[in-house]
From TrEMBL:
GO terms for molecular function: ATP binding; nucleoside monophosphate kinase activity. It catalyses: CMP + ATP = CDP + ADP; UMP + ATP = UDP + ADP; dCMP + ATP = dCDP + ADP. This is UMP-CMP kinase. SUPFAM superfamilies: P-loop containing nucleoside triphosphate hydrolases. Catalyzes the phosphorylation of pyrimidine nucleoside monophosphates at the expense of ATP. Plays an important role in de novo pyrimidine nucleotide biosynthesis. Has preference for UMP and CMP as phosphate acceptors. Binds 1 Mg(2+) ion per monomer. It comes from Thrips palmi (Melon thrips). It comes from the Eukaryota.
Length: 212
């Protein structure tokens, strides 16, 4: 009787250890989420999943039933219903089969958080939230520059940016606060230069990787 029990425990322990680890990366539009995720991926074994990129890809997929809706939401800086975004993230996580993911730009509101917890909480392990804290002035300038440099995005203009910042303050900040209350937020001042930010990133990710 003892052997099957030990085997059972071992099997359980293994499956818990094998759950993919998730780090959410949040911050205002232009705070540097995509840029910093790229840097992390170059230095640590993570897969970068940008919720915004996945939505833009879906929007451009011929025959997608959600394409028009996503287009409209992005231009207005509104948050797409979680069923769509979480579905895309889940598919990408499962397809990749990797063990660590940076989920960039999600969860952005309560609907995102509720939907994620309902579908994902059993099968992944959210480790912490990397919060890139950056002023609205700096972020606006960076997004306008990104637009001027040919990002091709429909939302890198002043009109959409105002709406995106509203959404960020009213809907995303409460999610960051929620995780802060759980002691799960690593805050980095991303107003600074990239080398300065990367120094802080190293201080967060090197111990995390060696402990996990
Ligand atoms: N620390 C930084 N200093 C200067 N420019 C930056 C910095 N971080 C990002 N950028 C630039 O600002 C723009 C927005 O960065 P991005 O990583 O796309 O932010 P987000 O994904 O948060 O919108 C990009 O053009 C990027 O090259
Ligand atoms: O989980 C998400 C992520 C993005 N978006 C939409 O996609 C836009 C662009 O998001 P992205 O993260 O690419 O912008 P960034 O903050 O990186 O500039 C947002 O304003 C939203 O309209 C969304 O609805 N849900
Ligand atoms: Mg981005």
């Amino acid at each position: 009787m003892l052997i099957p029990l030990v085997q059972g425990i071992r099997k359980f322990a293994m499956s818990a250890a094998q759950k993919p680890q998730i780090v959410f990366v949040l911050g205002a539009p232009g705070s540097g989420k995509g840029t910093i995720c790229k840097n992390i991926v170059e230095n640590y074994k993570f897969i970068h999943l940008s919720a915004g990129d996945l939505l833009r890809e879906e929007q451009n997929t011929e025959g997608s039933e959600h394409g028009d809706m996503i287009k409209e939401y992005i231009k207005l800086g509104k948050i797409v219903p979680v069923e769509i975004t979480c579905g895309l993230l889940k598919k990408a996580i499962e397809k990749s089969g990797a063990s660590r993911f940076l989920v960039d730009g999600f969860p952005r509101n309560q609907n995102n958080l509720d939907g994620w917890e309902k579908v994902m909480s059993q099968c992944v392990d959210v480790k912490f939230v990397l919060f890139l804290d950056c002023s609205e002035e700096v972020c606006t300038e960076r997004c306008l520059n990104r637009g001027a440099q040919g990002s091709g995005r429909t939302d890198d203009n002043l009109d959409s940016l105002k709406k995106r910042f509203n959404t960020y303050s009213n809907e995303t900040m409460p999610i960051i606060k929620y995780y802060e209350g759980k002691g799960m937020v690593e805050r980095v001042d991303s107003n600074r230069t990239l080398p300065e930010i990367f120094e802080d990133i190293k201080k967060i990710f090197t111990p995390f990787i060696s402990q996990s």
